[in-house]
User: What shape does this take?
Amino acid sequence: MDPFEVIPTGGALGAEVRGLDLRNELDAVTVRLVRGAFLDHGVLYFRDQRISQADLVRFTRYFGDPVPHVRPQPDRPIKEIFVISNVTEDGKPIGALGSEEIPFHSDLSYLPEPGTISMLYALEIPDKGGETMWASGYAAYEALDPDLKQNIDRLHAVHRHPIDALNTPEPTMHPVVRTHPETGRKVIYVSPHLTHHIADLARKEGKVLLEELIAHAIDGRFVWKHQWRVGDLVMWDNRCTMHRRTPFDDRQRRVMWRTQVFGAGTG
Ligand code: OGA
Ligand code: MN
Assistant: This one.
């Protein structure tokens, strides 16, 4: 019998994992089963956790190397933890990303080697808003018209962060259709937040196509929304999903710990 249960959300992606207490170390069989569920569902969430920063880093390490986030943050004991929050203390933000909407994106796609797996653990959440939704790049790709699939198969897009200082000196390019290195399945890899233009087409033609692809990729059919509760840990696969956060009232507090993995992990 599996040491835990996997309950699909019923939406285009995502599943809840029930029965694991992430304060504990996981054995190799459990890790393998969680990895399998993760590749199947793209997003996994674990509720009612009460973990420390060290627990989160240890759990992240089962799937790859957690690295300090590329964006600077105040010195802290466990550098692999990045705080996502709108809260300020003594006039200084304690974390990143504020309270505004964050449009759909795949993490760090503005870098030549984007993030692969990201995790968020909820410590404080607002009463309303600040929800995160994920879109399945697989479902979006599979639902494309066959002619369009063929047209976009060899195209590349330039990805760029709206904050210019975060970008690499050379433009970052990725295929519009990527193949997930572990599942071998194809996904649409463009986003409204970070994809700037299609490299291989005239600007106007490229713009029309990019808008069409983005509108398709974030269509409600392919999206599932997570309603956060304190103690939720969510992990997602940036190689086959995008996510968006809804805005919330900045007078409310939202505090999360985050970890980031690059590379394909240990398999
Ligand atoms: C992120 C992100 C969304 C959120 O941490 O990469 O996009 O819900 N966060 O805070
Ligand atoms: Mn993100």
Summary: The chain has a mean pLDDT of 95. The helical segments are 28-41, 53-61, 137-142, 146-152, 203-217. Residues 203-217 form the longest helix (15 residues). The two ends are 22 Å apart (CA to CA).
